[in-house]
Write a structure and sequence with these properties.
The structure holds two protein chains of two kinds. Chain A is mainly alpha-helical. Chain A contains eleven helices and four strands; from the N terminus they run αααααββααααββαα. Chain A has two domains: 12-44; 47-191, Nitrile Hydratase, Chain A (Alpha-Beta Complex). In chain A, α4 (62-70) packs across α5 (72-78). Chain A is globular, with a radius of gyration of 19 Å. Chain B is mostly helical. Classes of the chains: A mainly alpha, B mainly alpha. Chains A and B meet through α1, α2, α3, α7 and α11 of A and α1, α2, α3 and α4 of B.
């Protein structure tokens, strides 16, 4: 990114953003205060915590798990999560023999209401291109070694389908409460680039 | 939520994934503008998404691939594309305003995006 002052065609994006925000505000198209609230919501309120609650419920309530795998969007709405980018969420389950990993090869489709905003690596061209071609190698580089007999399925998110991974419940967590399980579930596990470990 | 203080590994609590969502404040403003305008019905999400996909594809096909990937730079460009298409604002207007912002006196606090600066016209 160039920051050369005076180069009209290469104005820093920070300045273009500020200019655009001013113009839209002056025209009554956006309200900066409302926008502040929205950004805060996505940055800190949603996060992957909502997704972790969904996963912990599915681990502890077989009937909920069935509904979640059948209609992700509806089951997630049961817990009060939904809205923007939360339509058409399809939940797939990781097991000892099958592993799902999520990507958006075209841009960065992502189930925001349950996972918050996508991490930078999810938007990275290298991840988006490579995970399709060599998922085992990419997962290994990200610290997840899968046995060779584990079948890997790469799920490509679009505006029609946003994938969410239901990770395996780690062994040794049978005694934990739903609330304690929530604390174990990571965003990476729900994208399928990590497993959930017992505490 | 009282999570064990794992710093690394899959057991680290969800809030400790350790990744900054927005590298710089302007990125969150660019994000917020698109979502706010979508919420207000200015455009549909597929419209914005198509513009973003086009910008990303153009970047991937261009020589600039060697430069660091700037996701929100492309996001901002896509937003400008959509708004230009709607005649809500033109690229030239944004450029003109950004130029005048660039001429602000040194020492101006660029981090304050919530206040309204009156250096523009």
């Amino acid at each position: 990114m160039t920051t050369t002052a005076g180069s009209a065609e290469h104005l820093p994006p920070a300045l273009r953003t500020e200019a655009l925000e001013q113009l839209l505000t002056e025209r009554g198209l956006i309200d900066p205060k409302a926008m502040d609230g929205l950004i805060t919501t996505y940055e800190s309120t949603i996060g992957p915590l909502n997704g972790a609650k969904v996963v912990a419920r599915a681990w502890t309530d077989p009937e909920y798990r069935r509904r979640l795998l059948e209609d992700g969007t509806a089951a997630i709405r049961e817990l009060g999560f939904g809205g923007f980018q939360g339509e058409h969420i399809v939940v797939v389950e990781n097991t000892p023999t099958t592993h799902n990993v999520v990507v958006c090869t075209l841009c960065s489709c992502y189930p925001w209401p349950v996972l918050g905003l996508p991490p930078s690596w999810y938007k990275d061209p290298a991840y988006r291109a490579r995970v399709v071609k060599e998922p085992r190698a990419v997962l290994s580089e990200m610290g997840l070694e899968l046995a060779h007999d584990v079948r890997i399925t790469v799920r490509d998110s679009t505006s029609e389908v946003r994938w969410l991974v239901l990770p395996e419940r780690p062994s040794g967590t049978e005694h934990l409460t739903e609330e304690e399980l929530v604390a174990l579930v990571t965003r990476d596990a729900m994208v399928g680039v990590a497993k959930v470990a017992a505490p | 939520m009282s999570a064990p203080l794992d710093i690394e590994g899959p057991a680290a609590p969800p809030r400790s994934n350790g990744e900054l969502v927005f590298a710089e404040p302007w990125e969150s403003r660019a994000f917020g503008m698109a979502v706010t305008l979508y919420d207000a019905g200015a455009f549909t999400w597929p419209e914005f998404q198509a513009a973003l996909i086009a910008r990303i594809a153009a970047w991937e096909a261009s020589a600039e691939r060697d430069e660091p990937h700037n996701y929100y730079g492309l996001w901002l460009a896509a937003l400008e594309d959509v708004l230009t298409g709607l005649c809500a604002v033109t690229t030239d207007e944004v450029t003109t305003r950004a130029r005048s912002l660039a001429r602000r006196p040194a020492g101006h606090d660029h981090r304050d995006h919530s206040g309204h600066h009156d250096h523009s016209h």
